[in-house]
Amino acid sequence: MSNFILETRGLTKHYGGVHALDDANFVLSPGEHVAVVGDNGAGKSTFVRQITGVEQRTSGQIFFDGHAVEHAGPLEAREAGIETVFQTLALADDLDVPSNLFLGRELFKFRLGPFSILDRKAMRERTMEALKTTAVKIPNVDNPIRNMSGGQRQCVAIARTAAFASKLVIMDEPTAALGVQETAQVENIIRGLKERGVPLILVSHNLRQVFDLVDRIVVFRRGRIVASLRKDETDGNDIVSYITGVKGSEEAAA
Ligand SMILES: Nc1ncnc2c1ncn2[C@@H]1O[C@H](COP(=O)(O)OP(=O)(O)OP(=O)(O)O)[C@@H](O)[C@H]1O
Ligand SMILES: [Mg+2]
Questions:
Q1: Predicted confidence band at 135 (pLDDT cuts at 50, 70, 90)?
Q2: 99 in helix, strand or coil?
Q3: In this structure, is residue 182 part of a structural domain?
Q4: How far is the CA of 232 from the centre of ligand 2 (A)?
């Protein structure tokens, strides 16, 4: 038995001839915050999609919370305790904010077989609480998501993650589309997860953010993990040289 909350062994994903992810061996300890960095197309989002069951891997194994996992889809991953903010947001355009937050885990006043009544009031209240923690100002949570700005949508997705965070949180470029203030808020949410002992995988191109927030940095290059370094044993220049391939082309990291 391993002591890791998440472990991948030989995780591989090919899209036809494109080797988007090759033999990724990755571990995450309980409570640990790890950044995943790398150039565009390095395989970071592909890695996230395999762990979260959005796609089915070509080969390799995933262990989560002590079990080998075969997440048939993102809902199963979420039920298992993995909350994810995807790079391309999985929000339902036609629904309002509370319905998006509770998508797939709606609260009911009453439920008997096919008959059910949604508890809209409770969902709305929990939504307002979750948004308060992100300090995001959304003019009207009853508007459909489609009428919101990119940054507001992103904040809804992050509020959803923070509200339901259980065993593992994954964020793929959570602040790429955000302004300065919203970025600071999201970083505070991440610090809050750390305090609560919730482990995190943070995909980010922002090295300042990465060095501010995480314990360890994992570098992807051309579908492979080329480095795994504790924050205190590396620096920005070192990480950039792994990202660009000046370093690490021959060394494999655990
Ligand atoms: N559905 C797909 N079909 C074919 N190729 C894909 C698909 N998704 C990703 N790829 C390819 O896999 C490689 C890795 O893509 P991925 O999206 O994982 O990169 P990334 O590291 O997340 O990049 P970015 O920083 O730009 O988000 C790229 O070469 C990409 O073109
Ligand atoms: Mg990506």
A1: low
A2: helix
A3: yes
A4: 26
Q: Which range of residues forms the domain containing residue 215?
A: 6-244
Structure pTM? Answer: 0.85
Ligand 1 pocket, 87 CB below 6 A?
yes
The CATH number given to whatever domain includes residue 158 is 3.40.50.300
Number of structural domains (the chain) is 1
Which of 190, 195, 191, 197 shows the shortest CA–CA distance to 167? 197
What would you measure as the largest C-alpha separation in the chain, in angstroms? 61
Element (H, E) at 128: helix 120-134
Domain contains 253? no
44 forms beta bridges with none
Task: Give 221-242 as a DSSP string.
Answer: ETTEEEEEEEGGG--HHHHHHH
How remote is the CA of residue 221 from the centroid of ligand 2, in Å? 12
- Say yes or no: CB of residue 13 within 6 Å of ligand 1: no
CA 68 to ligand 2 centroid distance, Å: 25
d(CA 247, CA 227): 9
Least confident of 1-10, 11-20, 93-102: 93-102
Ligand 1 atom having least distance to the Cα of 49:
18
Q: Does residue 104 form part of some domain?
A: yes
Q: Which of 146, 200, 141, 140 is nearest to 174 (CA)?
A: 200
250 belongs to a structural domain: no
